[in-house]
Amino acid sequence: xxxxxxxxxxxxxxxxxxxxxxxxxxxxxxxxxxxxxxxxxxxxxxxxxxxxxxxxxxxxxxxxxxxxxxxxxxxxxxxxxxxxxxxxxxxxxxxxxxxxxxxxxxxxxxxxxxxxxxxxxxxxxxxxxxxxxxxxxxxxxxxxxxxxxxxxxxxxxxxxxxxxxxxxxxxxxxxxxxxxxxxxxxxxxxxxxxxxxxxxxxxxxxxxxxxxxxxxxxxxxxxxxxxxxxxxxxxxxxxxxxxxxxxxxxxxxxxxxxxxxxxxxxxxxxxxxxxxxxxxx
Length: 281
Hints:
By secondary structure, the protein is an alpha+beta fold. The chain has one domain: Phosphatase 2c, domain 1 (4-Layer Sandwich), CATH 3.60.40. The protein contains seven helices and 14 strands. The protein has helices spanning 47-59, 69-84, 139-146, 151-154, 193-196, 201-210, 214-227, and strands at residues 7-16, 26-31, 34-41, 95-96, 98-106, 109-117, 121-126, 129-132, 162-163, 167-168, 176-181, 187-191, 234-244, 272-273. The strands form three sheets. Strands 2, 3, 4, 5, 6, 10 and 11 form a seven-stranded antiparallel sheet that branches. Strands 1-13-12-7-8 form a five-stranded antiparallel sheet. Strands 9-14 form a two-stranded parallel sheet. Strand 2 and strand 3 (34-41) form a beta hairpin.
């Protein structure tokens, strides 16, 4: 049977301010072919304005059947300009993460085109395989990668909220991109660190496997984070690949070796970039 779209999807999303924050600085887009989460940084600097500006730039592409890498890069460039150009008193100096996937068509086949900048995450569940697609741009991830920090201690490390790349916040950073062959039955999760800081990967996997409906799964995940403390804003998008176009392809795979850059200490649980000498991070 022919498939007119590269990936036919069902999706659900949920977000909550959490139990300690006064403002929800997360913004998200769950409208095919785009499924994105942006986690704004610096409440006193209007992180919610920065995250909303990024999502607005990408929302212009909603409604298409698929996007190319050129489309996504173009949207990212527009998003960064929007954040950089925020005026004083209306978000100037704020920053945001960005993570998620776009539906892509590669020679008639369905692919997930993933983008990531910061420590919001994208996961893929297929059958019994649950994997984190994105690579955290954080000081803790750098320490784990270098062998200086045990992965089991990473969730408790005082630097766990400090990121090494962001959009805005006085930094100039580029995102990582991955192109992953999609399979019918794939379940994609895109979330802010308000989920992953409260709920272990094993529990996230259990909830994703236990809820067939993507909207119910997203709602359950956010509720679980609230039950575990809800110390930050929480956003989850769950996307199911109902049908995928195929024409014969090589074995799936993706490059998870993108480099990270240095960062600094945690401040009151908020996500913060570190500005290095020379203006980069």
